[in-house]
Amino acid sequence: MKKLCALLAILTFTVLLVWAEDTQPEASVRVAELDAYWAEVSRCVKEGDFNAYKATFHKDGILVSGTKNEAYPIAQALARWKPDFTQTESGKITASVEFRFSKRLGDATTAHETGMFLYSRVNADGTKTMAYIHFEALLIKHAHWEAMMEYQKSQGTEKEWDKLRTRNDQ
Fold first, then answer.
1. Helices (H), the chain
2. pTM passes above 0.90
3. How confident is the model at residue 21 (pLDDT cuts 50, 70, 90)?
4. 75 touches 50 (CB < 8 A)
């Protein structure tokens, strides 16, 4: 009986070890692809590249605003955000967005990302605003990654932001 228990323990450990090794490469590939996705989102905001930014969302995507208790199609949010992209592209304002994550789940074609983003904006008069936002994103990959849902959960703080690791630290 002891030999059977020992054999089962070894077998279980081996299966878990093989499973962990099999899923690790997939996870690291997914995270690398998603890091590239978030870098593209940041680039679009910084350069005011509205069309490329729009392409980071699925056409049927949804924006959920926890602070406003609303949910609506991303197309509606994009229409509201477009003037900021136009002003950024023309140099009237500067804008940037950075991302940090607390949890990253998924597989080769789906992802659920949890963390914060920091949106910074400097108006033409030099007024600077910074918004720390807790968020979740649900993404799907067909030809490329696209956000199906962006959930802007709540306002955050610089202290909460500082506690999260940057993409490169993960």
1. 2-47, 50-54, 74-90, 158-163
2. no
3. very low
4. no
